[in-house]
Amino acid sequence: MADGTERGDDTAHGDSSEYVNIWMRPERPARGPRPAYSRAQITEAAVRIADAEGLEAASMRRIAAEIGTGAMSLYRYVPGRDDLLELMIDHVLGELDLPDRPSGDWRADLTLLAERTRAMRLRHPWMSGMRRARSSFGPNQLRMLEFGMGALDVGVPIDDIMVLMGLVTGYVDNAVQDELAWESERRRSGLSKEHWMGRSAAYVHQLINSGRHPMLTRVVKDARQPHMDREAGFRYGLDRVLDCVQAALPSVPELPEVPDVPEPGGGA
């Protein structure tokens, strides 16, 4: 905008009459000259900036400078900041290499989805701060939704599928945030997780010796997870979450055992 601010959501004041979902807007007008840029170019530039400098740096002015145009001209392609964020989110979700449809093995499918989502979020740390309650259902988000929820479509109500899918995605989000937080602390302090644990050992042993913290004592003496590498720790937690999902799904009946039948003419 002229004063340096950016356009937000048309529905900020509850007026939905003017709002048009970004995915319903044609990328180029039916008439007029060919556009100089595309939404994809603008989105890719925004993602590059956010990856390198953080989400706040990906302003229309900064993106315009990146692709060599004026900030106001970008609003012909992307009407506002919320639309830009939706395009950015859907763009990085497009990196998820998922099959066209679930395999029939829900546990394997959700493991694949969780591991690839984690990898994508670690490549784009700004995504960890994007907890948007409202979705515009971009094409890549829909592809992810259909694959993940479709994997759980095994005879349970759709509300249960939504809750169970939320358990998995919530675990992935929280695990990635923890990984990024440890990495941020490492850069800030210069201490690895192992060095931090060593430096804290004297105080932790003081707490243990007090006898007032039995659960902390068990964590320090018995827990394996804090000593796992990042991939093993993630997979351990994911397996526990999937065990909880399994408990909510219908059990698969076991096939009855077929008794051995002696072959005709066989001896006693």
From TrEMBL:
Bias-annotated ranges (Basic and acidic residues): 1-16
Ranges of the DNA-binding region feature: 59-78
First and last residue of the signal peptide: none
Annotated keywords: DNA-binding, Transcription, Transcription regulation
Coiled coil: none
Domain of life per record: Bacteria
Transmembrane segments: none
Domain HTH tetR-type, first and last residues per copy: 36-96
Renumbered residue ranges of the record's region Disordered: 1-36
PANTHER family: HTH-TYPE TRANSCRIPTIONAL REGULATOR RUTR, TRANSCRIPTIONAL REGULATORY PROTEIN
Protein name: TetR/AcrR family transcriptional regulator
Organism encoding this protein: Actinomadura rugatobispora
Species classification: Bacteria, Bacillati, Actinomycetota, Actinomycetes, Streptosporangiales
